[in-house]
Amino acid sequence: MSGTLTLTIIKPDAVSKGYTGKIIDQIIGAGFQVKAMKMIHMNEREAGGFYDVHRERPFFKDLVAFMTSGPCVPMVLELPAGNAVESFRKLIGATNPANAEEGTIRKQFAESIERNAIHGSDSDENAIREGRYFFSDLEMF
Ligand code: ATP
Ligand code: MG
């Protein structure tokens, strides 16, 4: 059965433009419950560790620079009916907002493929890894 948890980050572009509240409102409106949330300003080690899988990609350095450029808001989300990862990725839309469907969070709030407003875990396994990454004290993991 697919899991009930996913991990999101409202990224520095969206936080700096004041979209945090609007984005959380849409997440809750879509049926997700916020189980944990904090505002942090990541350093290079923290952002690099989070995106470790992309370390060899040409955009890695820019991605870390962007993710450390200001505060962001990681959250653990629960969708009680299940399928949290897939449902959430549908809600946020394609990585490149130019390709994102109308009504998705990235379509509404993202600027570009890099400054794309929000993260969503891409598997149950990564949701747990990422949840632990930011909220190591949470018993749900
Ligand atoms: P995320 O993991 O942030 O939810 P994603 O799963 O849709 O996004 P990934 O392929 O995991 O996309 O890429 C991670 C992040 O790296 C993207 O959200 C984006 O900020 C950045 N990124 C991805 N591809 C590119 C690219 N070609 N050029 C610049 N930045 C990119
Ligand atoms: Mg990803």
Written overview of the protein:
This protein is of the alpha+beta class. It has a domain at 5-39 and 73-134: Alpha-Beta Plaits (2-Layer Sandwich), CATH 3.30.70. Helices cover 39% and strands 14% of the residues. It has a four-stranded antiparallel β-sheet. The protein is globular. The mean pLDDT is 97. Adenosine-5'-triphosphate (ATP) binds at residues 54, 59, 63, 95, 113-114, 116, 119-120, 122.
Q: Sheet bearing the most strands, described?
A: 4 strands, antiparallel
Category by helix and strand content:
alpha+beta
CATH superfamily of the domain at 5-39 and 73-134: Nucleoside diphosphate kinase-like domain
Fraction in helix: 25-40%
Number of strands: 4
- For the termini, the CA-CA separation is 17 Å
Let me know the average pLDDT: 97
Which CATH top level class of the domain at 5-39 and 73-134 fits?
A: Alpha Beta
- Distinct helical segment count: 7
Shape: globular
- SSE series: EHHEHHEHHEH
- For the biggest β-sheet, the strand order reads 2-3-1-4
Integer-rounded radius of gyration:
14 Å
Task: List segments where confidence is low: pLDDT < 50 over at least 5 consecutive residues.
Answer: none
